[in-house]
Specification:
heterodimer; A: mainly alpha; 6 helices; B: 2 helices; about 90% helix; rod-shaped
């Protein structure tokens, strides 16, 4: 695989990166600066009807609050967790979208990045559960009511494993979707390299089709990650069993 | 010879596994699509809700399919 400590640009050459910054880390830093630019500087908060970029971002923010946070976490908790869920949503969305721009790469195509984001969810699940229900109450939420005790003995380890499997699934889903999309595009364009000029036009046409699908997948995966995070955190804050 | 045969078996196993995963995901998401189409045909007013629920279910199934693809890739690299 390519050296992760240099950024290769097509006509300018390879830019070496310092040892504490790999290519995906640089992409994350660029994405964070872009988010600060869009939401800190370009977003107009001075009242009145939103127009332009403010309007576009406001649609997404209201979508996160009204369709993801409040239905899954209740009224008051939903509104308190909305800034966190918005941060997750926009960070993942911008990182996924940067993978589609020619000179950049998507940091979510690295399993370490998605594992870090999913461990955020895990810490919030466990921390929120213990904060809201106390440590004993948190452990009790894994034991459903009205179940005879031999089944409880078997069910408790399975529920504990389920607690850790859910963020692991979030990790792998986001990572595999992003990396898989890029690998498919590379493979299709590699057909043009292997078979010469005759295969170039069909290869580029198919790669363009997959590219358009990747735009949809970028939005969808950011939405799914945020939605499942909200569901998991909500179910730990308000255990119904 | 034996090394070449075991290499071939590794590649065969990993790629056949990946193909089977695609069959499973295709059947699963196809059934979700069928249910969604029938729901929309009965009640066109509920199209937005049905589409949202369909996308969520499809992404969950695709998540499982991609786990298996990652396992196949790991098997290929051994």
């Amino acid at each position: 695989m390519a050296n992760p400590h240099e950024w290769s640009l097509p006509f300018i050459g390879k830019i070496p990166l310092p040892p504490f910054l790999s290519l995906h880390a640089l992409m994350m830093v660029i994405c964070a600066l872009l988010l600060l630019l869009v939401f800190g500087v370009l977003y107009r908060k001075d009242g009145g009807t939103p127009r332009g970029l403010t309007n576009a971002m406001e649609i997404l923010i209201l979508f996160v609050r009204d369709q993801i946070a409040v239905p899954n976490m209740g009224e008051s908790d939903g509104k308190r967790f909305t800034p966190l869920l918005c941060s997750l949503f926009f960070f993942i969305l911008f990182m996924n979208a940067m993978g589609l721009i020619p000179l950049f790469s998507s940091a979510t195509g690295n399993i370490n990045v998605t594992a870090a984001l999913a461990s955020l969810t895990l810490v919030l699940m466990i921390g929120g559960g213990i904060y809201r229900n106390g440590p004993i109450g948190f452990l009790k939420s894994f034991l459903p009511h009205g179940v005879p005790w031999p089944i409880l003995v078997i069910l408790f380890p399975i529920e504990i494993v389920g607690l850790f499997i859910k963020p692991f699934a979030l990790t792998i889903r986001l990572f595999a979707n992003m990396m898989g999309g890029h690998v498919v595009i590379f493979s299709l364009l590699g057909l043009a390299v292997t078979f010469g000029l005759k295969a170039a036009l069909p290869a580029v046409a198919m790669a363009t089709g997959i590219y358009l699908l990747e735009i949809l997948v970028a939005f969808l995966q950011a939405f799914i990650f945020t939605l499942l995070s909200a569901m998991f955190i909500g179910s730990c804050l308000h255990p119904s069993h | 010879m034996e090394h070449a045969a075991s290499q071939g078996l590794i590649i065969l196993g990993a790629t056949i596994g990946a193909g089977l995963v695609a069959i499973g995901a295709g059947i699963g998401i196809g059934q979700i699509g069928r249910g969604a189409m029938e729901g929309i045909a009965r009640q066109p007013d509920a199209t937005a809700k049905i589409q949202t629920a369909m996308l969520i279910a499809a992404a969950l199934i695709e998540g499982i399919a991609l786990f298996s693809e990652v396992i196949c890739l790991l098997g290929l690299n051994k």
